[in-house]
Amino acid sequence: MIGSARFSRAQRQTIVQGILSIVVIIVVLQLWLFVATMNAYLGGDEAVPGPAALVSLACLGLNGGLLWYLYSLER
What percent of the chain has pLDDT over 70? Predict the structure, then answer.
């Protein structure tokens, strides 16, 4: 955060709800990606799992970054 600015409890609650909404969207995206990847792979397309794994790792990184921000919000 810039300087020593603190968020009020209501502001933190709004931020946490926004982060939770983004995490839910990312998790649903990962579930869709998994289903589409398995469908393509079982259909014989062997080029899909590599890029899908990279996108899934990017989603993991986004969720990790949001968690890091959430922990830094408590300080």
Answer: 93
